[in-house]
Amino acid sequence: MLLHQGTKIIKTERLVLRPFTVDDAQKMFDNWANDSRVTRFLTWQPHGTVDVTVNLLSLWCEEYKKSPAYYNWAIEYNGEPIGGISVVRFSEKSDWAELGYSLSYDYWNKGIMTESAKAVIDFLFTEVGFNRVGLSHAVKNPASGRVAQKCGMIFEGTKRQYYKTSDGQYLDLSDYGITKNEWLENKLNSF
Ligand SMILES: CC(C)(COP(=O)(O)OP(=O)(O)OC[C@H]1O[C@@H](n2cnc3c(N)ncnc32)[C@H](O)[C@@H]1OP(=O)(O)O)[C@@H](O)C(=O)NCCC(=O)NCCS
């Protein structure tokens, strides 16, 4: 049985993972939410105006209050929000969670999402009690698959033409996952 804790603050070597606030709107808009390089393979479009970001953050802040099963972290680096990582779907019955994430283009390829995802995966396994954590990414977006691999996730297959982009392309999606036992074993071996 899952023991939901909400979006608890998690600190890593370089980062603070914390709940978003409405005051993050301008930085979120400037840093990643209005950047088509970031949203290219995502389910949402660049925000266009900061009002869209403000409205979205207001909804997210309501969710924090409503549900301890809502997991959505701002990734803060040097005091500034530069991205987000969240549980996009989970199963209360089967104890699995799926992650989604996005990061400001200026910070790509510095290991930041791997550091964030590892911290979130550890929290979901050891504190909430999930048995499996996974993610799906567009095959055309290999950096995301690489994050999954660096977190110890196993490639589980590709769903062909599974996702239709807003401009009408059908994209193949690859699935990755890791079980709690695999995670704990990997942790033990890296000590
Ligand atoms: C995907 C994303 C979150 C990765 O974040 P990040 O902090 O740059 O990730 P990391 O630095 O931890 O790891 C990225 C890895 O991908 C690799 N990589 C980058 N571009 C690549 C490419 N075109 N082909 C293969 N590997 C690539 C990097 O070299 C790095 O691997 P390495 O450490 O072995 O060298 C970031 O690129 C992003 O926000 N993209 C837009 C949003 C998005 O696609 N989200 C995921 C949706 S499933």
Can you walk through the features of this model?
The chain has 6 helices and 8 strands, in the order ββαααβββαβαββα. The protein has helices at residues 25-33, 36-39, 50-66, 112-128, 142-150, 180-189; strands at residues 10-11, 15-19, 72-77, 80-91, 96-103, 132-138, 154-164, 170-179. The radius of gyration is 16 Å and the shape is globular. The two termini are 28 Å apart. The structure holds coenzyme A.
For the largest beta-sheet, the strand count, sense and barrel status come to: 8 strands, mixed
Order of helices and strands: EEHHHEEEHEHEEH
Strand content: 25-35%
How far apart are the first and last residues' alpha carbons, in Å?
28 Å
Low-confidence runs (pLDDT<50, min 5 residues)? none
SSE map:
Layout (H helix, E strand, L loop, with lengths): L9 E2 L3 E5 L5 H9 L2 H4 L10 H17 L5 E6 L2 E12 L4 E8 L8 H17 L3 E7 L3 H9 L3 E11 L5 E10 H10 L2
Parallel strand pairs: 5-6
Antiparallel strand pairs: 1-2, 2-3, 3-4, 4-5, 6-8, 7-8
Helix pairs in contact: 1-3
Bound molecules: coenzyme A (COA).
Coenzyme A binds next to β5, α4 and α5.
Features:
8 strands, 8-stranded mixed β-sheet, 191 residues, Aminopeptidase, binds coenzyme A, alpha+beta, 6 helices
